[in-house]
Design a protein that fits this description.
With 400 residues, the protein is mainly α. 83% of the residues lie in helices and 0% in strands. It is globular, with a radius of gyration of 20 Å.
Amino acid sequence: MDGKQGWWVVVGVFLTITITSGIGFFVLPIMIESLIEDMGWSLTEISFGVTIWGLAAALFSPFLGQWIDHYGARRMMLLGTAFLFFITLLLGQVTALWQFYVLMFFAPFGSMANTYIPAAAVVARWFVRHRGIATGVVMFGIGVGGAIVPLVTSLLIQNYGWRLSYTMLSFVLLLAFIPILLWVRNPTDKDLNMADQDASADSEQGSLMDLSLSEALRTRTFWGVSLGDALTGTIFAIFNIHLVYYLTQDLGSNETATHAYSALQICIGLGTLAFGLFADRFRLRSVMIVCYLLPAFATMLLMPTSVVFLVFAFAIIAGFSGGGRNALFPVALYSSFGKTHMASIYGLSNSFFMLGTAIGPFLAGMLYDATGNTRLIYAGAIVGLAISALLISVMRNERL
């Protein structure tokens, strides 16, 4: 594998994820202040919408994984993009909190069907020697989308208001159909027969029997990496949803907070590339532990005082290592269980991650509304991230 056709698939998935993840994951955090001011909703009420989103994503993920294994990544990405278009369009029309909650329940079907799981599944089938960097390049699209879309959204809100901004962004989503149709596909038997296989990787991995979903569930690796990743997901969900709001309160400037948030997303993208390369060159388990531990140290920089340069230092370190998770986690699942049932395994594991996404912002929102103290939230994040790295350390190749 690792041939020219595989890299065109990477290009297609990268462009798709840049658009779909940027709009599907990173618009709401910029909308929060406008929703609070215009609709009169509290941070806790909006955070409960994120909880609904996370719970629905946890519900959908196992099914999506199985559907991707059965129908292919391309079909699911097309369906997910169409679904996300309608959800985003309707979000600009909400007039009541219950409508927001209904849309947040259905939104993750679109977001999950065209981002992490299908991207990881299709790339794993095309690459052997360069699987880490290929996955990193694909997931880099999440960082690019996360860096660009919040800035664009902020400008749109300033000029057109939040409702029209949602409408305009929904039509931007239609651009994602182009790379999916042009380049995203699974390798055919002909591609596999003509592939430039890496001999050492093939001899080492090819003779190993891939694990099924039920077999993976009986391993310590599945539970260790899934629960560890879920804790990290809990913390980063809080940062992704609330960080702009928290930093605005701490620093007194929404503009500075938005720039720090964009810096975090840019560094997530750069970290995705770097850790993807590290995965191909160094021992995967060691790289994983470092990747999951660094955000704990970064969060300590937010504790002493709200100094701007410390906030940006946090964004750089946490973003860099947080981005590494995007590249490394799919590679870890592939290395531990094989590619045959990877989407199904990833889908179920992602349910735990999404549960963290559901719980974290809601609890943090309640805590902040009750205390007005961001330091308590940061302290809890540090503990959770440290435990996450400990759980990740149990991973091994379960096919041996």
